[in-house]
Design brief:
transcription regulation; 208 residues; elongated; Tetracycline Repressor, domain 2; transcription cis-regulatory region binding; mainly alpha; 2 domains; transcription; Arc Repressor Mutant, subunit A
Length: 208
């Protein structure tokens, strides 16, 4: 009986993953508004009841898509930030990883989707922000706060995120993607700027 239940749960998880993969492709290719539960059920094959047994609405399915994308992103960021105290080498490792994650195709496509349809569907913008960017920002603040005040850590987080997000937006407008060396040059310049400010603020906080 236990083996039977285990097999059922495994099959259920596999079917759920298949649905999320189909939905991800649909959302990225058609957009949020043009994606329908009926179209996903048709591509999935079988009855609509199978889809509805896993997800009760398009919003719930989109949440699962976001969670899948954010999970991979967060795992990579956590690897270089969790339990880390501020240092210039640690900052460089983080900025390189953050940029790498932001430049991934799925990250770009998800961001473009949120940007293009977030005004019409503010719920998906809020959903995305709370599940992804908000969590990453907290991790970055915690990293900087090992060296500077909480207020300064928040400012440095804003600077870091804005600089790397802006770089990605600039890259999307270019006819040719920058090389790895060019990306590293940008990160090196950014790290020098942030480190200079962080070290100055860190020294100031030690003053009597």
């Amino acid at each position: 009986m236990t083996n039977l239940m285990g097999k059922r749960e495994l099959n259920k998880a596999r079917k759920r993953a298949e649905i999320v993969n189909i939905a991800t492709r649909s959302f990225f290719e058609r957009g949020y508004a043009a994606t329908t539960m009926s179209a996903i059920a048709e591509e999935l094959g079988g009855s609509k009841a199978t889809l509805w047994a896993h997800f009760g609405s398009k919003e719930e399915l989109f949440e699962a898509v976001i969670d899948q994308q954010v999970e991979s992103f967060s795992r990579d960021i956590d690897e270089v930030l969790t339990s880390q105290t501020y240092s210039k080498p640690a900052l460089r490792r983080f900025c390189l990883r953050f940029l790498e994650c932001m430049m991934r195709d799925n990250a770009v496509r998800l961001f473009s989707l949120i940007l293009s349809e977030g005004e019409r569907f503010p719920e998906i913008r809020e959903m995305f922000y709370s599940r992804g960017p908000a969590k990453v920002r907290k991790c970055i603040i915690a990293f900087y706060a090992t060296h500077v005040s909480e207020a300064e850590a928040h400012s440095l987080m804003q600077l870091t995120v804005s600089a790397i997000s802006g770089y990605r937006s600039d890259v999307q407008l270019r006819p040719k993607r920058p090389t790895r060396a060019e990306q590293e040059e940008f990160v090196n310049c950014l790290v020098e700027l942030i480190a200079a400010r962080a070290e100055h603020e860190g020294d100031a906080s030690l003053q009597p």
